[in-house]
């Protein structure tokens, strides 16, 4: 009886704990007074892994008239519950805002910052108000500043509250609003009222449901001391129990998939004035960029290395690709990339003087050099993959953030190059620039281009090895790295302190001993790197058996997709191909006891394929392993099939052969 009572008591306690852990507090939109439920909450039931949860986030945007012009005012209020120690990072807040270094008259101002931490101590709510000394400003770049502050006394269980305003002179550009965050959101609300004079295009996207109201209401504006009344469009968006939007290695820009609201100015319609349209076309954007002194003007700059280029003897080079390679190699010896991407390049002269610049500045100089070599080239503008896709519904110059150089070949095709390229080659761009929608701008010939599958990316390896009776594997590997594989090889080689460290890391990764290492074309502007190693590896020996993985060097050890389900797509960086040939000589006095079965598998759409073939003749075992992957985007509905595809491949890569002593 006693044991039964203890069991029932334990069940009751477990139920109470579970009740706490599975709690979802009532939505409380009041700021300055968190509820007992919010303070006592220990976990968020819809996502018990959450380190914190947004309890309430409210955004309001409205127009007023100040100093003879319109102004947009944004009010932000945020309340967050910290559930785990990692969640305390949400007490550190950064607010970016526009303030040009050149002191432009158009700017944004952050004001009215107020923040507090609320903790439950001995059943009493204790508020810790942030002091002004915790607030400071920093410049992010020549265009943007940010305000930073840290809310004190934040720990597991704390409810964080903060609010602030942004006053923006950019009344024609309404900030995008995202309903989802990197942590779950219990409740979020966005209210905006737009005077009737402003005609905006509205774009609502995402997979989560938003409650939406769209109605007319009166707007009062103070203009020159006079009250001006007009109609306005009031929009309200509400989201409840929205899941976290987690970034991972298979998403370029997670905000592309956020439930969000975006506005773009379509026109101005003031009384007594003609309607002024701001609706853009890509042709209009092309012309605006070509007319811009920091873009189109840079396409006309004089080649700063005109005299020095004579030493390249370009007229003696046979192909256009050789000439481009010679010019680019020379340029990269003069100007290094500063790790920054840009669209405009008004500081090209400074880049030449300092020997360092962003990719745009290097690209403009490259184009001036190509022009002197009579090689046509054009800027190819884009939004980098980690900065979000270009909108399809309406053209937007604001979404453009960099460009690469499209260079005309003699056969009327184009090759592509960028100032950020250090380890690649023509058409071997950094994956972040390999977008499927970029715009080549040229007088009378602008066109859309797809850069997602430029270049050939292949790893091709041949292993010849002999297995001795003591289980040692002696062999050599000859590998040809092409495209992105060559680029990655060079990057890793440069990252090592010296070649000895690189070899040591390779040996450790593959669990081998390397007695000879040779690599060709590491420091050459080339599409490939060739590597040769002589190695030794120990197989597992147990009594009369030898166990080893016949691939020696695996394609993959683990399935990268372990989630039971996935809400976001899977995005791959590039299409690739892996071909492995392995020739093994088995030891005398041994026979094959177990051998992996052949495999040929494809993804459901046929865009991915893996083939594993074996051929045993006497004491010679030959393996041919081929992996092809051409599709770069898999939707959530295709995830299970993709997961199973990789599961089978990982399992096959880990299979062993068993040799038995006769």
Describe the protein's architecture and organization:
With 662 residues, the protein is an alpha+beta fold. The chain contains 9 helices and 36 strands. An 8-stranded mixed sheet has the order 5-4-8-2-1-10-13-12. An 8-stranded mixed sheet has the order 25-26-24-23-30-34-33-32. Strand 19 (402-408) and strand 20 form a beta hairpin.
Write down the Rg. 31 Å
Helix content: 10-25%
β-strand number: 36
Strand fraction band? 35-45%
Distance between the termini: 65 Å
Strand order of the largest sheet: 5-4-8-2-1-10-13-12
What does the overall shape look like? Answer: globular
Largest sheet: 8 strands, mixed
Query: So how many helices?
Result: 9
Q: Which structural class fits the helix and strand makeup? A: alpha+beta
Mean of residue pLDDT values: 91
List unreliable stretches of 5+ residues: 1-21
Can you give keywords for this protein?
alpha+beta, 8-stranded mixed β-sheet, globular
Quick recap:
This protein is α+β, with helices and mostly antiparallel strands. It is built from 9 helices and 36 strands. It is globular.
SSE layout and pairing:
Layout: H1 2-21, H2 36-40, E1 52-66, E2 69-82, E3 92-98, E4 108-121, E5 124-129, E6 135-139, E7 144-150, E8 159-168, E9 177-178, E10 185-195, E11 198-205, E12 211-223, E13 226-242, E14 260-268, E15 276-277, H3 282-291, H4 320-334, E16 336-337, H5 348-354, E17 356-357, H6 359-372, E18 377-382, E19 402-408, E20 414-417, E21 438-440, E22 447-449, E23 458-467, E24 472-482, H7 484-495, H8 499-510, E25 513-520, E26 528-538, E27 540-542, E28 545-548, E29 570-571, E30 576-585, E31 590-594, E32 599-602, E33 608-617, E34 620-629, E35 633-634, H9 639-653, E36 657-661
